[in-house]
Design brief:
With 186 residues, the chain is mainly alpha-helical. Helix content is 58%, strand content 5%. The chain has two domains: 54 residues, no CATH class; 119 residues, no CATH class. Strand 1 and strand 2 form a beta hairpin. The protein is elongated. It starts with a helix and ends with a helix.
């Protein structure tokens, strides 16, 4: 058999495996298309073959708000953990972000790394409610550094998630708690 045929078959197999993963993560059709290059019709055929019902599919727009990562001390802490995982998988590299920002299908390698980061986060935080599409927004948000970003705690230099729209000094959860306890004891 021809090696180019083998490579094409392997690539198609990887695309289908990726599509299956994304469908089990309850990712929307448009996002799956962007990550795999599979059309909505191809996805519909695969869902039927795999027994994924219409009721299992999410509806509506993909989440776009980044406030879920800054709405509480716990959310900020989880955001820093997610950032560490994303960094470990090379998702903050300029070429990765440029690829995610475009509306063309992602490279299989990048899409697979996004899945690995998502699975790692879910394994570390089994009670978390992170949606895969929120992970995509998070990677873009951190890299663009317009609404959220990474910085250092004003008191202990720990890595913190910064809400660029908040004028207060960035502080980690521990320093914030210690500061509140100090205020409460006086």
């Amino acid at each position: 058999m021809d090696t180019t045929t083998d490579e094409a078959a392997l690539r198609d197999s990887r695309r289908h495996q990726l599509a299956y993963k994304l469908m089990t993560y309850k990712v929307r059709t448009r996002t799956i298309s962007a990550m795999t290059g599979l059309s909505p019709e191809q996805q519909r055929n695969l869902r039927q073959r795999w027994g994924i019902t219409e009721r299992m599919r999410p509806r509506g727009s993909s989440p776009v708000s980044l406030s879920r990562f800054t709405c509480s001390t716990r959310a900020r802490s989880d955001g820093v953990s997610l950032a560490a995982i994303c960094r470990a998988y090379g998702l903050f590299l300029p070429q990765a972000v440029a690829e995610i920002s475009q509306r063309a299908p992602l490279s299989l390698e990048l899409a697979e790394r996004l899945c690995q980061a998502y699975e790692t986060f879910c394994a570390c935080f089994p009670h978390g409610r992170l949606q895969f599409e929120s992970l995509l927004n998070f990677v873009l948000g951190i890299t663009r550094n317009e609404v959220i970003g990474l910085g250092q705690c004003a008191f202990c230099s720990a890595t913190v998630l910064i809400d660029r729209l908040d004028s207060r000094q960035p502080t980690c959860g521990q320093c914030r708690s210690a500061k509140a306890a100090t205020r409460g004891s006086t």
